[in-house]
Design goal:
Length: 422
Amino acid sequence: MRSTLQDQRSVAVTIYNENLALVKDQRKIQFASGQNTLAFRDVSARMRPETALLRSLTSPDKLSVLEQNFDFDLLTPQKLLDKYVGKSVNIVRTNPATGVETTEQAQVLAANNGVVVKIGDRIETGIPGRIVYPDVPANLRDRPTLVMSLSNGGVAQQEVELSYLTGGLAWKADYVAELNAADDKLDLSGWVTLTNTSGASYHNAKLQLVAGDVNQVRKEMRFANLGASREKAMIAPASDMAEESLLEFHLYTLDRPTTIAENQTKQVSLLTATGIPARKELLLRGANYYYGSSYGDLGQKMKVGVFVEFDNKESARLGMPLPKGVIRVYKKDAAGNAQFVGEDHIDHTPKNEKVHLKLGDAFDVTADKKQTDFKRLPNPAKGNAWFESAFEIVLKNAKKEAVNVVVQEPIPGDWKMLSESQ
């Protein structure tokens, strides 16, 4: 017997960050009493067969799997020819003048880089006509199929669930932020981009996404805790997805069924939040490699970075775990047209944490750094030498208005600040 998508009652897909998904496929199937052979069709071509688990939802203790095979050798003209090496086929030729067809039996001798056949007492290369096969080999499928030998001691019609891990399903988060004119508020929208290259389609699926770095050992995944109790919390901003904690990760559930077609990229809304308080910051970050030697009058041109920061808090109109992804920032020009002003990558960001984005380097605000003094001091104690170094940083502003610049100067090792001018 075989089962296709026509038997499917529901399908649930949980997708992880690491090109991994958990599929739960529920179907209603008619079994015979005793031993059955079931061809479970329309499964992922990238299924991990060692993770496949079939269980009966109708009679859990009456249906058991004795053996299973994953047939992923898919039917193609070349594969069919390969399977018939050493076997007999029919060669059908058409007379171009009369249109009359003649049939001869042939034995396929080889199918590598062309075909070699034996017809009667002669050997021919190439295909002298149209090859007609008597049948499709049992282990050659037109679509990925899990073949199982089962023992049924329960009722005939049962609802079963096949769960398995598969590759070929991935998701990532992308965000769009728009700054206001004063650079003190932004609107944020988040999108989930799904990619399906698993070799199967999932119709009207219950979609869930897991954010976090789930450990995998030898291409297997521990998911014994999937049934554990979960602390549920709805997302504060407007969203199509509900969020809850799952062990030490976060689970997002789409509030409606969706179809994930084979070889498709789909986008689903993750969040929409407006009026988030934001802070623009001009930041000058130094480097510690200038401390170990004398550089004389050699100066260092430094870039002043442009950053935008906001709080991932409910009081700031946000307050939800943000999956890792890229935030692209826009701002309207004088004509009211939104212009791209930079992007940055964020890691998984928990609730109540800050989001710090570098948008680029300032054009009108620059800095020069030079070493003004360097000397070696006598060390009364035996050991490493003592050094004293002095630096000057000059900030330049070509804008019409004054700006605030934060200067961060890392001090390496055992160096201590002796004096400062600011």
